[in-house]
Write a sequence for this structure.
């Protein structure tokens, strides 16, 4: 016999102003098996919870229905209260008299009648509830971090410093990401490499971090706490355990004209190369697509000059497997490519460059050793035009969003230019100046007021070349749209930040969602910014949306703390509201017939197979089995199974049925 | 048919199989299923146009399974059922020898299930033209007419479940009608109970039905319950490009293609 207690909440006046709560409590008292029914102003408050606890003890309750707000809000509260009074938490159900009743109806008889019905349904449901225990899942305390930019570096260091193992996978030959390419950084103008490279070295030397460069994720299977990753190590053609990084090889490599990715195409590199002198690891790889030996079958000069004999032309890609408990995606971003700006002549005129290229010009480690010299003739430009929002906030180009960092780095670029070329003149075309952030607006004001950068509000319509000058045509919208024409020596585009080319494929491998611009999607825009919708997979940095370094680092530490929190538990506790395949006495074992159509229906790949064997180990029956770690309790399989062999615990067919019948039979 | 008999005898003699499931002449002049366990008895095997029962239904029956490994005489409808059963993990290649028969009774050898799958590609599993006409007539009825039509059609049903017993795809040990916690389908053969049973049966066969008409043949009341499954088949073909049975795992309802039509969501 069930002994049910009903607790009707006023929710201040949220419910009681519309629903006659006393009447609801009275009506519920008359339902079969209800032995106690009361109403109270705030059930969730301490006295409210005490009311429930006492009633459980006094009336020996076997089930509790709290008629209050959304279970999303307070189900854990009331389940905990019940557990404290010795009643299994899953014997407590909530019905939502607020969102489902008082907030959506007027104060009428019918509203109260509906509230009574809602309680009636839950009373019938709770009679069919069964005590449940949380599911315990083991956790592999190693994190996989994908992408070695500042986001990946920070995440790895933070997790490793908590005492957990980290595998950091970077697709390029060196970690560092975009930050390693930057000259100086807003808003403090400290040198990017000087603050970054110590951390890169720390990563390489950290006993808890395994750094795998020149590698990519091949596949990921499993679930939170228990992922299996396959990582493809691309053939470096160099044995790094033998290589000393002396540089003899890249000094001698005859294939020298390859545009350097690190210098954003403004310099060149060899086929066997380290991307930049401060690279980590500081050992080369052979870029097969540009190597004479791999392309034409002849050369091997590097091999001849390599004293320790580290070159391995026969090296092949290798797949390594790793078990990890959490994954952090930190694959960063990219900037739009030349074909995006036919109107600005990017790609056509050598002196129309991107912001990233300007960073390389301004960088002490760049092709001009930090002097601002334009690419075409290496002259110091006397007049430079910076175009902000190049591509961003332009629905016509398919990018509706603001790239967020360009206003700031454009101010930085103009400032750096004025600092380096005292006689120079700089102009910035902008839509508006977005400089929200600590010391950010002050930084822009400094550019305008102290460094005399000319800010012009308006868009540039076209850039073309005339008599060795770049003619920039635009309009000044603060001067009634007056047309403006500037004869510039160099034009710098603050080109839009976009998602990485491979991000969609990676998202699919990881089973995480991405937005319409193919940036990785966070689980909740406000409350879960570093989580994805797949448990155990987190995000940090510009792979989620373009962002600057402070924000990236903050997010990286946030993701790391989520991982550390996960790893700090001995086992993972999960809500037991998942699907189970029924079990019956032998020789039936289960009504499941092993058709495995549910296996293909499950959107989370949570259904596997289980073999029932006799004493001699012969398989008698193969049944569906739900993986407790993977199942999200969506119920697709339940709807699908013809023999009704799967049920969701806590939402079983029987429970749902009794709710519906309570309503229909009334 | 002589080749089939010869092969059946060989298989039984060498004990490669314990039983041959085929057709024989029944006492009422209609063919019936035969379960031949001795090589001497193979002569009673027959095959003609009246042999329409889908013998694949026996492959999952416990009584037949306990006889030992079977060989099965398999015209088109049986072959289709075998492939569908295999895709649902109900039979495995090594558990069965398939004696394929062509429409004129010649033995067809199949190396494996894939060979059967390939063979079936040449035979469209379509609802024939005359049936299609009837189906269209039903589909074009108004809601009220259709409700009346089905209620009348199904009124005769007294829930003997012969249709279920004859269907090779109804192999569940515990059918949903027997699940009573909760009782999904009313047990009684009243109007609502009948309607619910037949709707559920059709839904459970969506994308799985091999269009063999065994259910209709078995129905002692001659109810056109196969119209329901045929309507489903028609929809499956027209809406989702379903082409017939395959060994691929998952079925029409449990999988999706990115180009599936969604015009029913409005
Ligand atoms: C021109 C310019 C100037 C800027 N100036 C400033 C500034 O002054 N101050 C400031 O705060 N911010 C600045 N930024 C922004 C700064 O660059 C970013 O905030 C920062 O780089 C984001 O770091 P991240 O690690 O998220 O991404 P990234 O730096 O893009 O790093 C991502 C890393 O992941 C790797 N990767 C990508 N895909 C994969 C994969 N599938 N598998 C493995 N590895 C992968 C990449 O190779 C890379 O190493 C500037 C940006 C630009 C474009
Ligand atoms: S649980 Fe149902 S759908 Fe899944 S294999 Fe078993 S019978 Fe088939
Ligand atoms: S409830 Fe959903 S997630 Fe869980 S096994 Fe069933 S289909 Fe998969």
């Amino acid at each position: 016999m069930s002994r049910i207690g009903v607790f009707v909440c006023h929710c201040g006046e949220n419910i009681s102003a519309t629903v006659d709560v006393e009447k609801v409590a009275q009506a519920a008292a008359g339902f079969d098996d209800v032995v106690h029914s009361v109403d109270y102003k705030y059930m969730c408050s301490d006295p409210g919870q005490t009311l429930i606890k006492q009633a459980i003890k006094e009336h020996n309750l076997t089930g509790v229905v709290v008629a209050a707000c959304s279970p999303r809000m307070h189900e854990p509260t009331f389940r905990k209260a019940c557990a404290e009074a010795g009643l299994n938490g899953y014997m407590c159900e909530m019905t939502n008299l607020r969102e489902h009743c008082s907030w959506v109806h007027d104060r009428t008889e019918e509203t109260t009648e509906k509230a009574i019905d809602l309680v009636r349904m839950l009373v019938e449901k709770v009679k069919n509830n069964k005590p449940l225990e949380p599911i315990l899942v083991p956790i592999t305390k190693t994190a996989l971090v994908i992408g070695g930019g500042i986001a990946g570096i920070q995440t790895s260091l933070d997790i490793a410093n908590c005492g957990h193992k980290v595998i950091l996978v970077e697709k390029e030959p060196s970690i560092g990401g975009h930050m390693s390419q930057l000259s100086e950084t807003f808003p403090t103008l400290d040198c990017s490499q000087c603050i970054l490279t110590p951390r890169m070295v720390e990563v390489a030397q950290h006993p808890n971090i395994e750094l795998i460069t020149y590698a990519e994720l091949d596949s990921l299977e499993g679930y939170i706490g228990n992922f299996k990753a396959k990582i493809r190590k691309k053939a470096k053609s160099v044995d790094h355990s033998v290589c000393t990084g002396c540089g003899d090889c890249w000094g001698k490599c005859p294939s020298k004209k390859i545009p350097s990715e690190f210098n954003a195409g403004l310099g060149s590199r060899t086929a066997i190369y380290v991307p930049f002198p401060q690279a980590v690891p500081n050992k080369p790889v052979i870029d097969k697509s540009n190597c004479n030996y791999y392309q034409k079958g002849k050369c091997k000069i590097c091999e001849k000059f390599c004293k320790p004999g580290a070159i391995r032309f026969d090296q092949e890609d290798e797949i390594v497997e790793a078990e990890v408990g959490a994954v952090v995606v930190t694959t960063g971003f990219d900037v739009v490519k030349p074909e995006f700006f036919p109107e600005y002549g990017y790609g056509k005129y050598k002196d129309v460059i991107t912001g990233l290229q300007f960073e390389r010009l301004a960088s002490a480690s760049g092709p001009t050793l930090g002097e601002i010299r334009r690419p075409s003739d290496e002259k110091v430009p006397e007049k430079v035009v910076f175009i902000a929002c190049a591509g961003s906030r332009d629905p016509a180009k398919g990018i509706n969003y603001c790239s967020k960092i360009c206003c700031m780095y454009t101010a930085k670029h103009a400032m750096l230019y004025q600092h380096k070329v005292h006689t120079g003149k700089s102009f910035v075309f902008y839509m508006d100046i977005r400089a929200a952030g600590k010391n950010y607006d002050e930084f822009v004001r400094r550019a305008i007021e102290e460094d005399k950068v000319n800010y012009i509000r308006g868009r540039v319509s076209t850039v073309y070349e005339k008599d060795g000058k770049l003619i920039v045509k635009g309009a000044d919208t603060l001067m009634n749209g007056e047309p403006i024409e500037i004869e510039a020596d160099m034009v710098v585009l603050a080109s839009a930040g976009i998602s990485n080319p491979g991000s969609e494929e990676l998202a699919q491998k990881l089973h995480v969602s991405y937005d319409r611009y193919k940036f990785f999607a966070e689980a909740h825009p406000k409350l879960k910014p570093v989580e994805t919708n797949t448990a155990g997979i987190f995000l940090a940095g510009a792979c989620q949306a373009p962002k600057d370094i402070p924000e990236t680092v903050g997010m990286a530490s946030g993701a790391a703390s989520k991982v550390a929190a996960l790893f700090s538990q001995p086992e993972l506790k999960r809500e037991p509201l998942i699907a189970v395949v029924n079990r019956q006495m032998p020789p039936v074992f289960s009504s499941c017939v092993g058709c495995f159509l549910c296996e293909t229906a499950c959107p989370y790949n949570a259904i596997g197979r289980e073999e029932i064997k006799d004493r001699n180990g012969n398989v008698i029956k193969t049944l569906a089995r739900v993986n407790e770690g993977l199942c999200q309790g969506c119920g697709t399989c339940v709807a699908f199974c013809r023999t009704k062999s799967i049920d969701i615990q806590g939402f079983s067919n029987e429970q749902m049925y009794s709710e519906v019948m309570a309503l229909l039979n009334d | 048919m002589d080749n089939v008999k010869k092969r059946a005898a060989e298989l039984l003699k060498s004990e490669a199989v314990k039983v041959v499931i085929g057709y024989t002449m029944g006492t009422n002049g209609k063919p019936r299923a035969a379960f031949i366990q001795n090589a001497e008895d193979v002569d009673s095997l027959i095959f003609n146009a009246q042999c329409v029962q889908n013998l694949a239904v026996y492959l999952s029956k416990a009584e037949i399974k306990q006889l030992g490994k079977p060989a099965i005489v398999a015209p088109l409808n049986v072959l289709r059922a075998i492939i569908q059963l295999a895709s649902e993990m109900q039979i495995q290649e090594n558990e069965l020898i398939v004696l394929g028969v062509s429409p004129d009774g010649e033995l067809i050898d199949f190396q494996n299930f894939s060979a059967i799958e390939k063979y079936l590609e040449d035979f469209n599993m379509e609802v024939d033209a005359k049936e299609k006409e009837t189906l269209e007539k039903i589909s074009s009825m108004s809601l009220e007419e259709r409700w009346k039509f089905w209620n009348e059609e199904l009124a005769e049903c007294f829930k003997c479940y012969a249709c279920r017993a004859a269907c090779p795809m109804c192999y569940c040990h515990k059918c949903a009608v027997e699940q009573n916690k909760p009782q999904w389908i009313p047990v009684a053969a009243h109007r609502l109970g009948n309607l619910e049973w037949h709707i559920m049966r059709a839904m459970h066969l969506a994308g799985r039905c091999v269009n063999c008409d065994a259910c209709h043949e078995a129905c002692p009341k001659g109810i056109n319950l196969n119209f329901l499954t045929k309507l489903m088949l028609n929809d499956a073909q027209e809406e989702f490009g379903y082409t017939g049975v395959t060994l691929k795992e998952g079925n029409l309802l449990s999988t999706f293609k990115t180009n599936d039509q969604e015009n029913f969501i409005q």
